[in-house]
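User: Working on a comparison across species. This one is Importin subunit beta-1 from Anaeramoeba flamelloides. Can you predict its structure so I can line it up against the others?
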Amino acid sequence: MELTSILLGSQSNNEKERDQCLTLLENAQSENLSLFLKRLCEELNNEESPIEARQLAGLILKNNLYSHDENRRKELAEFWVSCKADYRQELKQQLFFALNSNSKQIRRTSAICVSVIASVEYPIGEWKSLFEDLIQLIEYFKNSKQVSEGVLVCLSFICEELGDENECSEISLILEPILNIIQQNEEEIEIRVASITTLLNSLGFVWEIFESKEDTQIIFNTIFSCIKNSENEQLIDLSFQCLVKIAYLYYPSLDPYMDDIFQV
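Assistant: Here's the predicted structure for Importin subunit beta-1 from Anaeramoeba flamelloides:
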């Protein structure tokens, strides 16, 4: 059976078919995990496969890279890092391609998988070009709104996965593309929401930006614009959350903007 059929069968209401397909998946995983993960990546990136099969492939992939159990998570991370660099790069490339999927669900699933890999590789210096790679993806697909949204969701997940305890000054590279996307997509609410969410999740890493009055002003102007020029409640709420987080992290930077804050 091909992987697509096995994945769909593993969710079947027919108990016999479901058990058979689950056994096939377990055997493939235990016999050759590297090959199994590669096949899952290919399935996730296959636009001709049903969404259900692709999402399940991404979920299984994620579960073989990350666990909430600390010991298991360490084992999975050690396995991934032990794989050859070319192999890891190939899988990451497949996941990047999936960020351009026609399906929002697949873009989100791929973004989660990328963020999990980033949480393993980036802290140990194995993916130093992470943020540059994501920016280049936006630039390569310059007119693709779905790539912009996919990358933004991915960046947001990455910020969550890395956490404030990780040194991540390179994340400041993403601020300009984020702010540009917000300004260039005034009518695209989903993209603006993804952008402001990413901005919110990245604020803990970009302290260097708030040492520049010019950069600080751009950030505040963007946030105020989202509040004043939108009727979308989610976008407005996220923008206010940005103000709250800036107040918590960079309180002195608020002083020149107090009148504006009171106005909104």
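For your comparison, note: The longest helix spans residues 104-121.

User: Helpful, thanks.
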